[in-house]
Write a structure and sequence with these properties.
64% of the residues lie in helices and 15% in strands. By secondary structure, the protein is of the alpha+beta class. The strands form three sheets. Strands 1-4-5-8 form a four-stranded antiparallel sheet, with helices on one face. Helix 1 (2-11) packs across helix 3 (83-150), helix 2 packs antiparallel against helix 3 (83-150) and helix 3 (83-150) packs antiparallel against helix 9.
Length: 430
Amino acid sequence: LQECVDYALDHNISIKQQELSKELAEEDITMAQGNFYPSLNSSVSQNWNFGSYIDNYGGRVSRDSRSNNFSLNSNVTLYNGNRNKNNLLQVQKSLEAAGYNLEENKNGIMLYVVNFYLNVLLNKESLIIAQDQIDISKNQVEKAKALVEAGSQPRTTLLEAEATLAANEQQLTTAQNTLDLSLLSLAQLLQVSHKGFDVQDVPLTIDSASLVYNDTDLIFNTAVANLPEIKSAEIAVERSEIGVEIAKGAFYPTLSFGAGLGTSYQHNQGDKDVRPIIDENNNVVYVPNGFGKQLEDNLGYNFGFSLNIPIFNRFQTKSNVSKAQINQEIASLQLLDKQVKLRETIEKAYADAKAALNQYISAKKSLLAQNESFKNAQVSYDNGAMTSFDFDQVRNRLVNAQSSLANAKYNFVFRTKLLEYYLGIPIVLE
């Protein structure tokens, strides 16, 4: 069983999907943390100008030219109504909820595995019961054949015994088919090939059947404090409360700081890169004005603060706050609903476990009585004091008692495991 559970947790597709969802939540935290840092961006452009344009020195030029522009800009938000802070808190809660959702899914898979596994064991036991009946029926046929040949019993006795054997063989086939289907279901749950798939034969015995836990309030309080589905719902309430604060943050001003630098290069097509200057003799001379020189001369810096004050935005912020508050109420009601349904589920699980216990005790007593009745019937039949019809009636009651006990046993074990799950006890067989 432990191997089946471990394999399912390692290979189940839905679990892998939720693990990826958790990784997405981790990336959301990285993005939310990034909002506290300044941005830094650069840009480069290449342009071609045709006809008239204004050059870098403010003069009009009627020539074809090409130019480059380079810039580097940075911006950081200093205050925005604590929205960055609350966004980070919210995504952190989302990551925590993703962890609980993953744990809830794993618990559900484990419960399915336990249920399917116990069903396989039950069907294996039913197959053994059916096989035992085959053995008894074969002995009946041999005895009936000997009695008929000896002339002490009519031929109908042999025919009845053979008919009973045929019916038992049909029951064996049905039991084998049921076992095969349960193995197929378990293999599909584990997402492995059903070809050659089998589980270890585990003789499940119950030394003392009793319910250790008889207080549903204790089980409920433990489950509320520990179950991941409740934890996830509680976190949803916390996230909705943070969502209200995020929405209210839009009422506050946003203050940001920005800085940048830029430079450019311009070249007239067909000309050398030169620029005119006045020398010491007041003569106009042209000096080199290449790429590097222009980038140096045209380099400029800027920085400044920006304050955005919301005054009226068509009631958008007010409506967003109201919606966030409604979502908070919805999350609170969903938490309450989960708690109420959990209590109902636990109370039903306890009632089912109690009923399964009583059924197991009754089935055990019935089997003891039917065993004694069968032993007496076997002696009577062997001595010719009982007809095969009456003997089959006794044997059928024994088979029914054996099947009832097997069903009650595995049902009780699963119901007990379900209660232990709500108590946070690992879902494994002793």
